[in-house]
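[Meeting: bench + compute handoff]

Bench side (C.D.) handed over the final construct sequence. Compute side (W.E.) agreed to return the predicted structure before the next meeting so the bench team could plan truncations. Sequence as handed over:
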Amino acid sequence: RLLDVNDEAPTFIVNPTHLTVEENQPPNILIGQVIVRDADTFAVNGYLECSEPPEDSEHQPIRFERRVEPIQTQLQQESTTAVPELHFDLYTRQSLDREEGAPIRLARLVCW
C-alpha cells in the first residue's frame, strides 16, 4: 500500500528580493510582498497555513498581513491540480532608526 505524504516544503517568493526601509519613517509602511507556495496540490496534502511565531509577533520589525482573495482561493480549492498559495503584504511595525538601540532582528513567518 502506498500513501502520499506532505513531502513538499513551502517555498517563499519575496518581492522585492532585497527589502530596504528608509529610517525614521512612520510605522505601517508597505515595503514588499511575499508569496508562499506548496507544491502539494489541494487534492493531495494541499493544506497550507502560515503565522508569525506568537513569541515574536509583537517584537518583529516587519508585520505580515495576509491578503485574502476569496474568489481565487475558492477556484483553486475546487481544482485538483492547483497548488496552495498564500499572499502577504509586508509592513514596518515601528519606526526604524539604526542609531537607536539594539540591532534589528530578522522577521519570521512560519509555514506548514
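W.E. noted at the follow-up: Residues 11-111 form one domain. C.D. will use this when planning the next construct.
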